Amino acid sequence: PVAPSELLLRYRRFDNEGRLQTAPKRITGIPPECTVGELQQLVRESLNISPRQPVELLHWGRLLEPTLLLKNCSLSTHSELEVIARPRLQASAFTQGEPVKRVRLVSTKLQDGFTIDELFEEATVLDLKKLVQAHFAKNVTYFAQNKSAGDERSGTMAVDACDQLVSLGSAGAKKGVLKVQKVCDEEEGLVLETDVAQLQLGLESFNIIFEGRVLPEESTLEACGLINNERLVLDFRWPWDAGDDGKDSSGKGKGDKKAPAKKKK
């Protein structure tokens, strides 16, 4: 028997507006000797499921046992698996004392999450926030301020309001134009600088949230009750939103600016 190299996952989850959605997700690059248990870990990464939630995989209603090799589960490439995430387990169900070396961060504003792997023993929340800053300094990120159909004359691509865009470097000799990749579908193209806003996070302009509470900067990650590979929420303002102090997300003063129109669902 041969293990599948690619599978289609179907996972039911609530979207940001509270509606239950069943969205397909392809998972590729599966190792030849992968077990069901190892696939469960890959599924957690792909779907941003908390490590505290037990994951079950079903094929035509049949529960796949974690110890089995995929090649012995009568699966073929492109087979569909149903993903069920069970209720979260309490911290007491996990090994105590294991250092937090890696965390995953998601946000309602980001169209894809990211990981921080450079954590050291006794790292504090402030240390983590500095690593988040470094992540966005390395992976320069923009948001589209409004929906745009693109322009053949300037060669710019279509974007929706609030689309997340990652810089791909210089756009050559074209001034005022950025070369970017859309996170939602990985499309590459050009956008006008005036149509986007860069995400620049000052330490005081964002919070890290776990189970509905803001984590205090002075606390260690272990003291906050986190476990390794924990899923955390990054809370920040849109780059064009001014706070009560009249500062933008980088902490610099700015004038009033109209917020973009929200996308229609």
> How do the strands line up in the largest sheet?
2-1-5-3-4
Order of helices and strands: EEHEEEEEHEEEEEEEE
Oligomer: single chain
Uncertain runs are: 244-259
Largest sheet: 5 strands, mixed
Q: Approximately how much beta-strand content do the residues carry?
A: 25-35%
Total beta strand runs: 15
What does this structure look like?
- The chain has 265 residues and is mainly beta.
- Helix content is 10%, strand content 28%.
- The chain has two helices and 15 strands.
- The protein has helices at residues 36-47, 125-138, and strands spanning 6-14, 20-28, 55-59, 62-63, 80-85, 103-106, 114-116, 141-144, 164-167, 177-182, 188-192, 196-198, 206-210, 213-214, 230-236.
- The strands form three sheets. It has a five-stranded mixed β-sheet, with helices on one face. The protein has a five-stranded mixed β-sheet with strand order 7-6-15-13-14, covered by helices on one side.
- Strand 3 (55-59) and strand 4 form a beta hairpin.
- The radius of gyration is 21 Å and the shape is globular.
